[in-house]
Specification:
By secondary structure, this protein is an all-alpha fold. The chain is built from 5 helices and no strands.
């Protein structure tokens, strides 16, 4: 009997969309976007993050000015309760995805004897 892995992946995607973790993120993201101050702070934070990632990917030097801008932006969002709650929800979702990745990788790890006590 052959299993279509893509059908299973699509079922997992559907389950993730229905998960408490995702729905919490969705609700908190809507809350951030409905508050003009939170939305502006969040957009600026994401812009700074994207600029840094782009520099890293292109092999450009990250200047002290870039680091200070990122730290300043991060400090500002930590003072915003809406964004802070969203970030915590993102961490919970990230943990769920890491847990799922461990489950998905288990057959390969077993095949190669990774993490075995042998």
């Amino acid at each position: 009997m052959s299993v279509n892995v893509y059908d299973q992946a699509n079922a997992l995607e559907s389950a993730l969309r229905q998960s408490d973790e995702f729905n919490s993120m969705k609700d908190l993201y809507a809350k951030v976007n409905s508050n003009p101050e939170s939305k502006a702070l969040f957009e600026e934070f994401r812009k700074v993050q994207m600029e840094l990632q782009q520099k890293q990917m292109q092999g450009e030097e990250i200047l002290e000015e870039d680091v200070q801008k990122a730290q300043s932006s991060a400090a500002e969002i930590e003072d915003d309760e809406n964004i802070k709650a969203l970030m915590e929800a993102e961490q919970n979702m990230s943990q769920l995805i890491q847990d799922l990745n461990r489950v998905i990788m288990k057959p390969i790890e077993e095949l190669y004897g990774i993490n075995n006590e042998n």
